[in-house]
Amino acid sequence: MQTININGEDRQVDAPPDMPLLWVLRDRVGLMGTKFGCGIAQCGACTVQLDGVAARSCVTPMAAVGSRKITTIEAIGATPAGSKVQKAWLELDVVQCGYCQSGQIMSAAALIAANPNPSDADIDAAMAGNICRCGTYTRIRAAIKHAVKER
Amino acid sequence: MQREPVEAARAALVHEQAEQGVTRRHFLKLGVVFGAAAGGGLLVGVTLPARGQVTAQGPSGAVAADVQVPAASGEFVPNGFIRIDRSGQVFLTMPKVEMGQGIQTAIPMLIAEELEVPLDQVKIEHAPPDGEVYRDPLLLNEHMTGGSSSIRFAWEPMRRAGAAGRVLLINAAAARWNVDPAACHADAGFVLHPASGRKLGYGELVEAAATLPVPPGLEKTVVLKQPADFKLIGKPHRRLDSTSKTNGTAQFGLDVRLPGMVYAAVVHSPVIGGKVVKVDDTHARKVPGVRQVVQLDNAVAVIGDHSWAARRGASALVIEWNNGDHARVSTKLLAADLDQAAQRDGVVARKKGNVEQGFRNAASKVDAVYRQPFLAHATMEPMNCTVHVTPGRVELWVGTQVPARTIDTAVRITGLPRDKITLHNFLIGGGFGRRLETDCTGQAIRIGQQVGAPVKVMWTREEDMQHDLYRPCYYDHISAALDANGKPVAWTHRIVGSSIVARFFGTSAMKNGLDFDAIEVAADLPYDIPNQFIDYVRLEPRNVPTTFWRGVGPTRGAMVVESFIDELAVNAKVDPVEYRRSLLGKSPRALNVLNVAAKAAGWGTPLPQGQGRGVSVLHAWNSYFSMVAHVTVINGEVRVNRLVCVVDCGHTVNPMTIAAQFEGGAIFGITAVLYSEITIEGGRVQQSNFTDYPMVRINEAPQIQVIIVDSTEAPGGMGEPGTAVTGPALLNAIYAATGKRIRQLPVGRQLQTP
């Protein structure tokens, strides 16, 4: 048993040290909002935040989490940046199939929390790790810009 | 999703209903003119389950959608699409699945428009798999979502369903007030009688509406609104599923959780068609959390307490395969097969005028061969299915485009009657044709037969990519005979490739050996060319399975036709837009979208060196499209700067969704044209993940402008055209920028100098 902090709560989880955080969240804790897409940190569907920094949970072993605070899509709306991003996503009707959007929102929220006025290049740098097969990129970019304008 | 007691109770209810079956319900028939669908007024009988008694459950026998709420007694169920409970809550049953295309917003708009209910108050349910009413005449009468057919299917019957419900509610209120129904009207979930100022909510009318007699000929007399009176249809409306898809609560098939559930990781034969000979699972069984190893004909599954244990166990398997002679299959061999097959005469897809004469009298000729590769679907949600097989029963949790075929698959494998199979359908994390197939579901059932617990079967990205059913590789040969001005007087086109229709719908769906999908666009050119001969040679790529992929026939057809028309324009030294205009005299809608696109894109204005614009025109799915792509090519790398897309898809339902579908379809098309290719060597698919089968990312995404032209025509399809119209516009823009004509996809490194 190991204790990790998920969405502000200490949780005891039974998982081997090499088990990626993604599967701990999904199969052990039951938080299903974080998605599996590629398993090799190429698509970003599994993005969570560790101490507010976007991380690919599919390649983050349990043993590497340590005392860092894990935030998932289920709780990101409680942060100012997450809330703005979610509202902007609704406002601009970003989603299509929606499968990648948890990861997109986690990356976008980490971006605007760290950089309140991201340029197009900043958006590219922060979001290029998140694939959307439905191709919602133009709306994602517009929604990030919309989100930072929100007070 | 942990199963709450209420849900378990619902599952029990579902079983009970399934045993009772759905056939005892009565159906009423609606005659519906499906003009656009059939290309000219085919009368299609659409059956709606009769509204009936106050029911103890939902409208259907085996409905068990994840979004379903426990049914209360005392409901009004006017037909298979609407259910209203005593509280006035309106449930709409969706004949089409949601995979991103926004259909579970657009169909509710159609129903709500006529039912007069606020859209933000309806709840959405998945239709059960076996309901007659959910079958789509455009998809060979199957209950299926695909082929950009949903709005064409839904346009009239969904509005009639809503209108029928409204009439019955008005009648119920009028009877209670003892007034003429004509003096009442419905608005926002209420029936009103303006003369007396009375009003009643739909919830208060449920029981009366459910017991009143159905007016004779309701289906014919029900009057649909005039477009001028539409409150919802044609107005932009935000999607109904956004909130759940932005806060992590949206449930895809992969997200199901059941008590006692175990997890399966699968290792398929790396060689397509290979069989398991021997499995050494000594090491796999030693992995903590591994419970069981299940051997199938062509794959081995490791069952674990969680996905990671199962995957680690799968990695530790030592499997001996029998590849037969499948290991000799390669991309090179299949390309040679195509070349050879192209020498055969095909089945005639279109014959117009006299091409021989046209070629004899031609001033000049142009000729080109185009080759397109296998493509993977690469949906973001990898293939998965959760199954619980118990004696005499199968329960399935999966997001599928083909609910009825999913049941068929379970019946075929288990031999159980249909009513012993329960399907829980889910939101789909990307379909694009992949989830028209039930291969993963079938495999999950076979695994489930050997596992005494609910088991979630999930493929890795690698398994998903290497064991897809692929968009076929194709060979297209087009020749044109030209007059002195370079205009085509005769046109021949031979299409060589796999027939998806033959496998998917059966050879009975072929007409004289002709695959209706493979010849789309090619056999129905918008251009006025007097002599045409188009034929189709079916060639299956040996053991490589093929299936539908966003746009298939039209995507392939538009790629080559629109490239070739551009080649003809270049040959004639005429501007490509001007050249097309001169051939579109008999297709005013195509001409209009072309003109609008050219104007909006600033066609003809000068561009710097290394940049170019390309244009395409498409008539497919009963819609018309034109795109102007603007690209920059530097050091052989293509940067797509801007796409201007003009859409004439007839009367719009939700313009917001139309734009979104077009934007996304275009990105999908850019990925395919620039990067995508599945290659085979030694019988194995060589690509495995997004590293070697890359996707366009946000930093590569162009500006996209979608212009929807006003139209009063019946609606056409919108899910696939964005992809189909983008490919040739890009290729033509690349030509304009570089002078290099790409005839073999993808573009890849072809523009780079060695």
What does this structure look like?
The complex is a heterodimer of chains A (151) and B (754). By secondary structure, chain A is an alpha+beta fold. Chain A has 2 domains: 2-75, Ubiquitin-like (UB roll); 77-149, Orthogonal Bundle (DNA polymerase, domain 1), CATH 1.10.150. Chain A has 7 helices and 5 strands, in the order E-E-H-E-E-H-E-H-H-H-H-H. In chain A, strands 2-1-5-3-4 form a 5-stranded mixed beta sheet, sandwiched between helices. Chain A is globular and about 45 Å long. Chain B is an alpha+beta fold and 754 residues long. Chain B folds into 3 domains: 5-246, Aldehyde Oxidoreductase, domain 4, CATH 3.30.365.10; 256-324 and 383-458, Aldehyde oxidase/xanthine dehydrogenase, molybdopterin binding domain (Aldehyde Oxidoreductase, domain 4), CATH 3.30.365; 331-374 and 470-738, Aldehyde oxidase/xanthine dehydrogenase, molybdopterin binding domain (Aldehyde Oxidoreductase, domain 4), CATH 3.30.365.10. Helix content of chain B is 29%, strand content 24%. Chain B contains 20 helices and 29 strands. A 7-stranded mixed beta sheet of chain B has the order 12-13-10-20-17-18-19, sandwiched between helices. A 5-stranded mixed beta sheet of chain B has the order 15-23-22-21-16, with helices on both faces. Chain B has a 4-stranded mixed beta sheet with strand order 3-4-5-6. In chain B, helix 3 (103-115) packs parallel to helix 4, helix 12 runs parallel beside helix 13 and helix 16 (552-572) runs parallel beside helix 20. The longest helix of chain B is centred in the N-terminal third of the chain and has 28 residues, at 150-177. Chain B is globular, with a radius of gyration of 27 Å. At the A-B interface, helix 1, helix 4, helix 5, helix 6 and helix 7 of A face helix 7 and helix 19 of B.
